[in-house]
Amino acid sequence: LRTLPILAAVFALAASTSLARAAGPDSLVPFNEQEHREVLAGKKGQVVLFNFWATWCAPCRVEMPHLVELAGKHGSKGFRLVTVSADEAEDKDAALNLLREHGVPGPAFIKSVADDDAFINAIHENWSGALPALFLYDREGKLAEMWVGETSTAVIQAAIEKLL
Amino acid sequence: VKSVEGEEVPYSELAGDVTVITFVATKCPISNDYNERMKSIYADYHPKSVKFVFINSNKAELAPEVKEHMASHGFQFAVYKDDGNVVADLFGASVTPESYVVKGGKIVYHGRIDDARKGPVTEHSLRNALDATLAGKAPAKAQTKAFGCTIKRVSES
Q1: What is the pLDDT of residues B10-29, one digit of tens each?
Q2: Nearest Cβ partner for B145 among A88, A117, A149
């Protein structure tokens, strides 16, 4: 009889763990300039927020759960969060673990480019490469907002809601 | 800028014929990955009469922290505090680490130190720019970009 509550706890833990895993991405997809164009084209009709982040970027880690919350709140209205890790390939597992911890919805990408300089310029010529960087596109795939550095969630939310 | 002791240092005192201004941070992992490379570039180009000005413009990284960081990493050069990010605003610097090469009052190079934070470096961007400038030529690349940490300014909440 004593084992029953323990078993129940074990099952509950297993269920919550699998749920948390199910909410995060299974893998990180390589991402380059062309992928950026293709993802944008494929999501026409939706409001898309590209989040460029890295495991070494402290404000990015702070921002992530807020972005996940916005994705959950506005997903049904056509808002999509797309994360692109700027981590080096050797930090891929750490990046994936962080996305899983926060239950970040897919698709999840990791930059895979020959030259960061060309990649950064292709995303936006006025972007220095500083992280975090957010790029918000309207339903037509046109850039509506660009935020570099720490940005208030209220500001991001207001801009998303304006486009939905 | 101010020294870590809090004394005002005019830019005219720091600048030379060729000057490298590099925005750095104490906490940014990318900036810290370049500590040894910055020391090595300083060691190679300071004897060639290149002046170096390292600047910390982050609002939360105060002079005592910058002083401790300089000492703990054995920097053979000074890092100056840019209170109110005035110098960062003047240069339009937004990321650490980020370098500017100035010759004759003009920015001849702006950007990364090299093209690989961790992996093998294939382009020594800052060294190439310095070699060209010292040879009296324009750097092949006047601007490059790399991922780094945002400079946290006083104007931000």
Answers
A1: 888 899 999 999 999 999 99
A2: A117
